[in-house]
Amino acid sequence: MLKSVVRAVGAAVRISSATTSTARALPLSCPTLCAPSSATTRPFTRSLWMLNNNGASSGYRPKLFSSKVLGPSVSCGCGGLHTEGDKAFCDFLSDEIKEERKIQKTKALPKMSGGWELEMNGTEAKLTRNVGGEKITVTFNLNNSIPPNFDEEAEQGQQKPAEEEPEIVSTPNFVVEVTKQAAKHALVFDCHFPEDEMSHGEGEEESDIFAIREVSFQPEGDSEWKDTSYTLNTDSLDWALYDHLMDFLADRGIDNTFADELVELSTAAEHQEYIKFLEELQGFVKCN
Questions:
Q1: Which long-range contacts (CB under 8 A, 24 or more apart) does 107-114 make?
Q2: What is the per-residue pLDDT across 112-167, written as a single tens digit (0 to 9) for each?
Q3: Which residues, in sequence order, are bridge partners of residue 140?
């Protein structure tokens, strides 16, 4: 008798739990689209809504984020899922690509002065030059090279006019490798662009727009930084030694002029990759 009562109570609990679970799941028919994404932490976006300054008032966004469950279309023979949401997504991407092409300054990547040779491998870029028997190699990656830009209006959810939106600039970390013919190892500098040093106006004393984070001796041409090699961190470094390291780089063409040109190159290359990604995304959604 007691076992029968326990079974009955357990069954009732399971039915109650299933009902509650279903009730909670109903409002979340589009959790991925409706939930805030990491992009909302950025006050500016490449979205067409920001570029055209029409935002939610255009009536286009509510259509994309509708919680209505859309049925698949059977017009395509690829066997993939096609919905009205996919069609709206493709229409948006088409407009987005057009807008990005409008603001694209040039399709050709800008040239680096100083005799640097550029080699691109996807998002990885390599610049090389030879100076007095030394080989200088600079490598950087376009991914995650656009720093976030926070302001009070963005935190309060206010939208700026398109003409007031900050320009998107790519400032990647970059690695400088200096090799000598007689040396067994390469001297490697891990460099970056501090946010507070990226702008210097006229009349102000010019400061370095990039900084050295770490210095180490590494096997020549090795793409992986070996933790077994001693690494000098510049956070607690004597300023006199740090200045000599910066002068060492400047003598080999790694100075503010180089850094400015690298930012221009990286920004143009990153924008190309962004447009290419949008085109591939559109083709994937359309199943082309």
A1: 107/272, 109/265, 109/268, 109/269, 109/272, 110/261, 110/264, 110/265, 110/268, 112/258, 112/261, 112/262, 112/265, 113/257, 113/261, 114/253, 114/258
A2: 999 999 999 999 999 999 998 999 999 999 999 998 865 545 555 566 555 556 78
A3: 125, 174
